[in-house]
Specification:
Strand content: 15-25%
Shape: globular
Radius of gyration: 22 Å
CATH topology: Chorismate synthase, AroC fold
Number of domains: 1
Strand order of the largest sheet: 8-7-9-15-10
Number of helices: 10
């Protein structure tokens, strides 16, 4: 399995990630990772920070001549805005200036809970790390995970299904086609007829100094059955994917498959009937068993069942408003309007890219858990053996 750490502040010099456990021999293309970083910065409703930053990754270790070598992979994404924060975010004691302290915590942020937890008197010590800017380096890690999964025909994608209560329809197309439609949308929405309504909702919210959230959906195609486990609670793949999605800033809910809708239906309209077709294994499929429906979202009993994985996450509106909410000053204890930091009106499309990244990372872990993680050659040999085993069951 892989594990990774990220480090860095929103207005510090850089964001850093160290990935341990990436197998040797995985082709690692910085251009692919940079495209993922570019996707994260796009989307209608983004704020001024995206005009400053142009994120690119620097690979510092663990890769030689375009392939991983089995040692920790270190990646860096520089913050171009750092030059404007050299003293305010300096690690040096002589640059301390308490007159620039942020003392008005913003409702909906980590601000107040963070200063109470760590005993800070300056909210900036909290907001710099809790900022969604941190997700840039997680997207870079997710790019590495996607490249690994592609070696086994596993792909991760998705689209936005709702913004500010405006719901998109899902055209009756294969997911590949829906991803193509999404790539031409400023909101990463596969219902292009709905996009203008979503944009208008964002424009209206911006005019009112407000923000909007929404719902995103991530799919994983090509996953074999049997990833994850039913034997322990912390090895259930659905639980791990839910945790990964909930770790994204502003995500407040997760569904798998039908999700909450399953609670409103009788069992006969929820559970996916099982069929077998031996011809499937001769058509590139790894599993002769299949389901005509996918209400379970590709996971049963904490394990993949061979169907596409379907996950949805609900993102709350960004809590930094240009029409600030009421708060209390930490120094004077007087009521005040919360501090306004530079922000987006809507960042749901960006959250989709982050969601794809964390799902890909967790899928990497589940895949390596079953097939090993020393070298790509060994993993492919183990995977081929498993596919043969499936075809004979």
């Amino acid at each position: 399995m892989i594990r990774y750490l990220t480090a860095g502040e929103s207005h510090g010099p850089q964001l850093t990630a160290i990935i341990e456990g990436m197998p040797a021999g995985v082709p690692l293309n910085a251009d692919f990772i940079n495209h993922e970083l570019f996707r994260r910065q796009q989307g209608y409703g983004r704020g001024g920070r995206m005009k400053i930053e142009s994120d690119t990754v620097e690979i510092m270790s663990g890769v030689r001549w375009g392939e991983t070598i089995g040692s920790p992979v270190t990646m860096v994404v520089r913050n171009r805005d750092w030059e404007n924060w050299l003293e305010k975010m300096s690690p040096l004691a002589e640059h301390r200036d308490d007159s620039c302290a942020v003392t008005r915590p913003r409702p909906g942020h980590a601000d107040l809970s963070g200063v109470l937890k760590y005993g800070h008197t300056d909210v900036r010590n909290v907001l710099e790390r809790s900022s969604a800017r941190e997700t840039a380096i997680r997207v870079a890690v997710g790019g590495v995970a996607k490249l690994f999964l592609q070696e086994f025909g596993i792909r991760v994608g998705g689209f936005v299904t709702e913004i500010g209560g405006v719901c998109a329809a899902k055209p009756d197309h294969p997911y590949d086609k829906l991803w193509q439609l999404t790539s031409s949308s400023e909101l990463y929405c596969c219902d292009l007829a709905c996009e203008d309504k979503m944009k208008k909702a964002i424009d209206d919210a911006k005019d009112q100094g407000d923000t909007l959230g929404g719902v995103l959906e991530v799919q994983v195609l090509g996953a074999p059955p049997g990833l994850g486990s039913y034997v322990h609670w912390d090895r259930k793949l659905d639980a791990r994917l839910a945790m990964a999605l909930m770790s994204i800033q502003a995500i407040k809910g997760v569904e798998i498959g039908l999700g909450f809708e399953a609670a409103r239906r009788p069992g006969s309209q929820v559970h996916d009937e099982i069929f077998r077709d031996d011809a499937r294994t001769g058509q590139g499929e790894t599993n002769p068993y299949y389901r005509a429906t996918n209400n379970a979202g590709g996971i049963e009993g904490g394990m993949t069942n061979g169907e596409p994985i379907v996950l949805r996450a609900a993102m709350k509106p960004i809590p930094t408003l240009y029409k600030p909410l009421r708060s209390v000053d930490l120094r004077t204890h007087e009521p005040f309007e919360a501090t306004v930091e530079r922000s987006d009106t809507c960042a749901v499309p960006a959250a989709l890219v982050v969601a794809e990244a964390v799902v890909a990372i967790e899928f990497c872990n589940a895949f390596m858990e079953k097939f090993g993680n020393d070298s790509l050659v060994e993993i492919k040999r183990n995977y081929d053996s498993y596919k043969e085993q499936l075809s004979n069951l």
